[in-house]
């Protein structure tokens, strides 16, 4: 199907989808926000995004997407598991939210043409969110480093947890660096995003996001080594810097990594392993094994599950795990088969980040930032004029043509 230049309001719809996935719980904020108000904002942003996408695409012209098709099957599985109300009426509400979320993504596929448009929307939206985190850090440092999170950086303007802040910072830092490598942005613009983002990431002490950034960039740079001299230089310098830091700053890195935790707490993944063991040991019916118990708030016995795979197993059963594995496999295979390009590198970064984070973060089975990261990857891998032009203009050994 023919593609066209995305209207500016597409970026607004994407930003509203991101706002919806921010959640409504976290640290104390400078101006106290009742949970009902924050929920109204997040849910209202989703409905507004859907209406806006429908206005922009009234004829419902969509592009085929194996990723979204498999997500749609996952939604059907979630509805089947939720109708008996094992998880209460909240399960049906979460299914409704997931439905609107997916419908909005389908409407926006009209502009998935293999270009970096949605990468830029992603960076701008999450960059704006991180600006609010920085404002909270300056205005109310006491609330930005609450004791409840062990003095880690949180959102003091909008309630954001340290893992959320770390995730957003890592993703936009990695994408901005890749845009600079592909000559889609200048050095100073990239530095204006990367340096503050890395600073916020370090203040969150978020190991999952840091590891995801390192793994994602290693995979993305590796995909460009044979075709981009700039990528080779960055890869070599990064390896040297990491090697030097590992030797010269070993003690400081160990302190940052451990976050003052005991050996027992660290070995149990900050208590996650105990929750996981209890979840796996709990008795389940055959129906629960296949379909799960329906969408929940990603907790078990009042404690967060903090694992995408176990959360999907708990909520959508083995069928859900199979569907999640299927859409991740589809994205990986398509990315590997694409010719080298900036778009493929960005997609591989996002896929690798989500895969590495899925072990200790939930989000692959319901409307979440992780599904939006993978949606950006799917938009980058879509066939269209932008992707074909990128592949044609990518010069072996010299990077992208300016």
Low-confidence stretches: 395-402
Q: What share of the residues lie within helices? A: 55-70%
Mean pLDDT: 88
Shape: globular
Number of strands: 4
User: First CA to last CA: what distance?
Assistant: 27 Å
Structural class: mainly alpha
Residues in β-strands, percent: under 5%
Rg over C-alpha atoms, rounded to the nearest angstrom: 21 Å
Return the string of H and E elements: HHHHHHHHHHHHHHEEHHHHEE
Give the biggest beta sheet. 2 strands, antiparallel
* Count of helix runs: 18
Please give the order of strands in the largest beta sheet.
Answer: 1-2
Write a short abstract of this structure.
The protein is mostly helical and 402 residues long. It has helices at 8-20, 35-56, 66-82, 89-108, 117-139, 141-144, 162-181, 187-204, 207-222, 229-248, 250-258, 263-267, 272-281, 286-291, 308-337, 342-357, 369-381, 385-392, and strands at 299-300, 303-304, 394-395, 399-400.
Based on the model shown, name its key terms.
402 residues; mainly alpha; two-stranded antiparallel ribbon; 18 helices; 4 strands; globular
Report what the structure shows.
With 402 residues, the chain is mainly alpha-helical. It has helices at 8-20, 35-56, 66-82, 89-108, 117-139, 141-144, 162-181, 187-204, 207-222, 229-248, 250-258, 263-267, 272-281, 286-291, 308-337, 342-357, 369-381, 385-392, and strands spanning 299-300, 303-304, 394-395, 399-400. The two termini are 27 Å apart.
Compile the SSE list and pairings:
Blueprint: H1 8-20, H2 35-56, H3 66-82, H4 89-108, H5 117-139, H6 141-144, H7 162-181, H8 187-204, H9 207-222, H10 229-248, H11 250-258, H12 263-267, H13 272-281, H14 286-291, E1 299-300, E2 303-304, H15 308-337, H16 342-357, H17 369-381, H18 385-392, E3 394-395, E4 399-400
């Amino acid at each position: 199907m023919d593609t066209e230049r995305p209207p500016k309001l597409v970026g607004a719809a994407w930003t509203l989808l991101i706002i919806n996935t921010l959640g409504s719980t976290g640290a104390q904020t400078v101006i106290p926000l009742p949970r009902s108000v924050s929920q109204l904002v997040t849910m209202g942003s989703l409905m507004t995004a859907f209406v806006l996408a429908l206005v922009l695409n009234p004829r419902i012209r969509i592009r085929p997407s194996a990723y979204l098709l498999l997500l749609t099957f996952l939604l059907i599985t979630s509805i089947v598991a939720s109708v008996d109300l094992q998880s209460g009426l909240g399960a049906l509400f979460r299914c409704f939210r997931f439905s609107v979320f997916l419908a909005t993504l389908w409407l926006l596929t009209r502009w998935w043409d293999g270009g970096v448009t949605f990468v830029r929307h992603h960076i701008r939206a999450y960059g704006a969110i991180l600006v609010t985190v920085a404002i909270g850090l300056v205005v109310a440092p006491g609330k930005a480093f609450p004791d409840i999170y062990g003095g880690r950086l949180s959102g003091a303007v909008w309630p954001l947890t340290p893992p959320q802040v770390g995730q957003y910072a890592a993703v936009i830092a990695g994408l901005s660096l890749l845009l600079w490598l592909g000559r889609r942005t200048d050095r100073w613009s990239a530095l204006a995003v990367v340096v503050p983002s890395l600073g916020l990431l370090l203040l969150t002490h978020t190991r999952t996001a840091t590891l995801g950034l390192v793994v994602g960039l290693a995979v993305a740079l590796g995909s460009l080594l044979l075709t981009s001299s700039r990528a080779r230089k960055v890869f070599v310098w990064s390896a040297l810097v990491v090697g030097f830091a590992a030797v010269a700053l070993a003690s400081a890195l160990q302190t940052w990594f451990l976050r003052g935790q005991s050996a027992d707490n660290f070995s149990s993944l900050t208590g996650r392993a105990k929750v996981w063991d209890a979840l796996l040991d709990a008795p389940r019916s055959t129906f629960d094994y296949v379909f799960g118990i329906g969408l929940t708030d990603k907790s078990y016995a009042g404690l967060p599950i903090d694992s995408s795979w176990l959360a999907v197993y708990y909520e959508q059963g083995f069928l859900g795990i199979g569907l999640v594995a299927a859409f991740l496999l589809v994205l990986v295979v398509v990315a590997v088969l694409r010719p080298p390009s900036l778009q493929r590198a960005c997609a591989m970064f996002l896929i690798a980040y989500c895969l590495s984070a899925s072990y200790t973060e939930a989000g692959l089975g319901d409307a979440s930032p992780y599904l939006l990261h993978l949606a950006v990857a799917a938009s980058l891998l879509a066939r269209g004029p932008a992707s074909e032009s990128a592949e044609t203009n990518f010069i072996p050994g010299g990077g992208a043509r300016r």
